[in-house]
Sequence to fold (393 residues):
Amino acid sequence: MAGAAPIVVAGAGPVGLTFALAAAQRGLPVRVFEKREGLSTASRASTFHPPTLEILDELGVLGAIRPLGHVIDRIGYFTVADGLVADFPLSLVATESRLPFRFHLEQARLTPALLEVLRRLAPDAVAFDSEAVGVSQGPAGPVVTVRGPSGETRVPASLVVGADGAGSAIRTAAGIDVDDAPYAHRVLRLMTAAPLELAVSRLAPVSYVFDGADSISLLRMRDVWRVIIRIPPDLPDAAAMDPSYYAPIVRRFLPAAPDPLPLVSSDVYGVSKRMARRYRSGDVVLIGDAAHLTNTRGGMNMNAGIQDAITLADTLAAIAAGGTGALLDAWAQARLEVVMGALLPRTDRTVRGSSWLDQVRSAAADPHMARAFLVDACMIDIARVGAPAKGAR
Fold:
């Protein structure tokens, strides 16, 4: 890190804005460049785990978003034949988290709250319609090329944070390679206002329903249920969203649900397993989707990105207080190891079908195993990995 130039952040999604706000609250100058004309309104990630909620509370935004979402107090596993086979009340992690619940809210409802608090501290920190398209590095520090309505400008920085998504231009410019492996499925998401809790006995607000090796996921949002179905990778979107395709699947897993299932909306999206081989290259670091993508089951990837952001802000604050640059290397390695050793394995195992369900049944039957299961599923053990110890130099 060089000089008094600001930290430049590429991307004003939930991860980029979390970092920018955390950095500003720690007295670090920051500028954010977002290629869109405003905040994204896309309905993407929607799950916030307990340690992420603690982060948002520390940043001063949880109070603003809590009335907008839905508190999740249980996770349930079901089979079509037997009904509920494993029940995990999130109160089991009350000793590990002061906020022992999941929270469901579309990420597009979080970013305005982050932006509002950030602008109180740094009114001009975020520039829209301005895309960070490249970065050069030299002895005087990095310089970011930003493309906006008036052409390209060059912005000196002390550090460049790539939070610009899966196709990160900053990652490419920094020469950081990725390991990329598409999953053998895509995802069909059905939004329904039907009261599915009346169709399935003891339905939890997060429920996984199995039939042999196949399964679907049910997530309770504030106003709708999300029904998540994995589909073949080559099935056209229009075909997947046709009732002739999905209705038999819904009947198979939810025989007591309304038929036809009334929909508010539906969409199809791809899923990939992607990991940057490094989190740092000189004065460029990566966080969020620019660094990692995972299977969507379990809702971990955005949470990991927000955790990347807060641990990076803590690391940079420690360096500003007199710590050495070695702290940044340690952060980068620690977060990379979190992805390799925990994030990817945890998200992959949840789609293994009956073998995973057998493990879940065993865990639910023992209170100690159930607590450990939830600590793992809620990311409590990995949320702050990479943050420097107090007084670290």
